[in-house]
Design a protein that fits this description.
Length: about 190
C-alpha cells in the first residue's frame, strides 16, 4: 500500500513557493488518489478462496463487477490512509488560503508594482492613434496569485476526491454514504481519540 508523504512545515514561505505547494499536492495525490485502484487491489487477499479445478473445464465470462473488499480492510484503509491524506491536503490548502487573505508586508514586488502603476498613470493615451495604448494590466500581488492558486487546487481536489470516493464505493460497500459525511464522521472520531 502507498505511503502518504509527510506533511510540510506550514509557513508563509512554503505557500508563496508555488512550486513547492504544487509538488506537495501532486505527490500526495499521486501516492493515494491517482493509484486508488492499485491501493484497493492490495487490500484483497489473493488466497482467500481455494482453487477449484472444475473452474477450468468451462470458459468463464469476465465478472461484471469488481470483487468486493472485506469491510474491515476497507474501513482501515479509509481511516488510516485515505482520510488522513485528504486531511493533510485540506490543512495545507486552508493554511495557504489564510496566508493569501492576510496582509503581505514582505512582498518583494511591491515597489516594482508601484513604479509600474505610476508609469501607467503618467502615460499619455491617444486611443485614436493607438487603440491599445489605454490598456494596462497591473500585476497581481503575491497574495492574489496565491489565492488564485488555492482556488484552482481546491477545484482539482474536489474532482479527485469525487473520483476516488466513487472507486472506493464500487469496491467497498459505502452504503450510499456521501464523501463529506464520511470525512466529517472520521474527523469527529479523530477528535474523540
Amino acid at each position: 500500500m502507498s505511503r502518504t508523504p509527510d506533511p510540510p512545515k506550514l509557513t508563509p514561505q512554503f505557500c508563496f513557493n508555488h512550486t513547492a505547494l504544487r509538488d506537495f499536492l501532486r505527490v500526495s495525490r499521486g501516492a493515494i488518489d491517482d493509484t486508488i485502484s492499485q491501493n484497493l487491489n492490495a487490500l484483497v487477499t489473493p488466497g482467500d478462496r481455494p482453487f477449484d479445478p472444475s473452474s477450468t473445464t468451462e470458459r468463464q465470462p469476465r465478472p461484471i463487477g469488481r470483487r468486493r473488499i472485506d469491510a474491515q480492510a476497507c474501513g482501515e484503509f479509509k481511516d488510516k490512509v485515505l482520510f488522513p491524506s485528504w486531511q493533510v491536503r485540506s490543512d495545507v490548502l486552508n493554511y495557504c488560503a489564510g496566508v493569501a487573505t492576510s496582509p503581505d508586508p514582505d512582498d518583494p514586488d511591491h515597489m516594482l508594482r508601484e513604479v509600474e502603476d505610476e508609469r501607467a498613470r503618467e502615460r499619455v493615451v491617444n486611443e485614436r492613434l493607438d487603440p491599445y495604448s489605454g490598456r494596462y494590466f497591473p500585476r497581481d500581488t503575491r497574495t492574489e496569485a496565491l489565492a488564485a492558486l488555492v482556488r484552482n487546487e481546491r477545484v482539482v481536489e474536489g474532482i479527485i476526491r469525487a473520483r476516488t470516493w466513487g472507486l472506493v464505493g464500487e469496491r467497498c460497500d459505502n452504503e450510499g454514504v456521501e464523501m463529506e459525511r464520511a470525512v466529517d464522521e472520521w474527523r469527529r472520531g479523530q477528535r474523540g481519540q
